[in-house]
Amino acid sequence: MAFNIIKILIIVIILGVIWYLLRLSHTLKLEKRIGEYAISSNLDKENYSLLDKIINIKNKLIKKISQVIKHSVFLSKYSLKYNKYIEYKDKDKYNEIDYVSLKILISILSIILSIVISSFYKIKLDFPVLLLIFLIGFYSLDIYLTINYNKKRKIVENDLLKAIIIMNSAFKSGRNIMQAVEVVKDELDGPIQDEFKKIYLDITYGLELDLVFKRFYERVKLEDAKYISSSLTLLNKTGGDIVKVFSLIEKSIFEKKNLKNELNSLTASSQFVFKLLIFLPLLLVSLIFMLNPSYFEVMIKEPLGIILLIFIILLYILYILVVQKVLEVDL
Question: Is the pTM of this model over 0.70?
Fold first, then answer.
């Protein structure tokens, strides 16, 4: 009985710490947002908040790990795929190899945390379980970055029409492509502004117009961006009226957006069912674990259970991909 009370107290403390850290994170975001319009107060290091100190320690650890692993050719090539996640404002602070370092750091912390929890509950962790925990920790950052990237990608897709309208208006008023891009990056905000800052920087470096928008497409992976890139490539090779080309692009994207909105309205119920089908297995497993925590012990203690657990996870991921593909509607 006393042991159960201690467990409940520890869970409450952990939840309290998580809530406190979330509050600190929210406060820090507000501070950074307001700080852009405030006079710098030149705070001493002693006045830094706890979250600032944790972030500074994390950044130092990441930089130290990066110094070690950057000599690896394999890891350097592997890190290149994280270039699209670096925002324009952070391009001088972080590089691609830092993301690999962060993944390694998360994996090590996951193993340490698992060992501490297992010793508390008196559960023996075998090497396959530790390897699985390491892999989950290693790829958890990819899941977060992918979700965040898809969210920003959707915002870029929604705001791309605004950017094209602004550029087309700039062309009609006699401005060139660089001035039009500058107007967009000054007028809009959010992820689309970040992308047009990168476009403006590429043009400043003297890259060809079609190559600049091809790089833009490779970052966002949107069909509309590919359409713009193809149109500008053709315009660059054959010549033509840029105002007319962008007017056609504007009309095409506008019609496509209207059609997509209609399809979203028609498939709203199917999307709800899809999310419900994803959530139900997780809810069922959580309920069983709450009612009988020892029910899944065989899954982590026996070799056959570990193999079965990996198979279930892979099957669940396959199930999500298949259902998502069935409900997906391409324009």
Answer: no
